């Protein structure tokens, strides 16, 4: 996706023309943009909300201000996979890449804890271990994209 396309989509989502996307504009706008059906809206609303929380403030010149700027939106769009047109894979991949902060292709326990905290979930160490074990289907101690996508009912 080129800069012109990204800016066009950003402006389309920016309903109030404020120059940034609040959480509602971001989540509801993407639900509309991807033509999400009623039976899947809640699941997508959850993952779009998590993407919003992970992307807000990500980057050298951005602050955590509960708004997505054009720069932050461009960062999100840079994570879009090009090899698929399946909405669930596109959205899941973006969320996964935001969580996989060391770009290893797997989410480790530290990254999982950071993800949980940024999305407002605070677990004790033992609870994190149980969650990690329940997600990590192949037992390698890390979460793959496929395992991560099981967190969301897309």
UniProtKB/TrEMBL annotation:
Keywords: Calcium, Metal-binding, Oxidoreductase, Repeat
UniProt key word Oxidoreductase: yes
GO molecular function: 2-alkenal reductase [NAD(P)H] activity; calcium ion binding; NAD(P)H oxidase H2O2-forming activity
Keyword DNA repair (UniProt): no
Enzyme Commission designation: 1.3.1.74, 1.6.3.1
Membrane-traversing stretches: none
Domain of life: Eukaryota
Broadest EC class assigned to this enzyme: oxidoreductase
Pfam families the record matches: EF-hand_1, EF-hand_7
InterPro entries cross-referenced by the UniProt entry: Ca-bind, EF-hand-dom_pair, EF_Hand_1_Ca_BS, EF_hand_dom
Domain EF-hand: 1-36, 95-122, 123-154
Protein name (database record): Dc3, putative
Organism of provenance: Entamoeba dispar (strain ATCC PRA-260 / SAW760)
């Amino acid at each position: 996706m080129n800069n012109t396309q990204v800016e066009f989509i950003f402006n389309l989502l920016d309903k109030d023309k404020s120059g940034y996307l609040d959480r509602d504009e971001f989540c509801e706008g993407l639900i509309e943009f991807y033509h999400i059906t009623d039976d899947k809206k809640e699941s997508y609303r959850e993952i779009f909300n998590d993407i919003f929380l992970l992307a807000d403030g990500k980057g050298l010149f951005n602050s955590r201000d509960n708004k997505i700027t054009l720069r932050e939106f461009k960062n999100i769009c840079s994570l879009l996979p090009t090899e698929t047109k399946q909405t669930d894979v596109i959205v899941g991949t973006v969320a996964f890449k935001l969580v996989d902060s060391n770009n290893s292709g797997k989410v480790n326990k530290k990254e999982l804890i950071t993800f949980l905290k940024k999305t407002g979930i605070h677990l004790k160490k033992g609870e994190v271990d149980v969650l990690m074990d329940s997600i990590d289907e192949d037992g390698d101690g890390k979460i793959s994209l496929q395992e991560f996508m099981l967190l969301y009912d897309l």
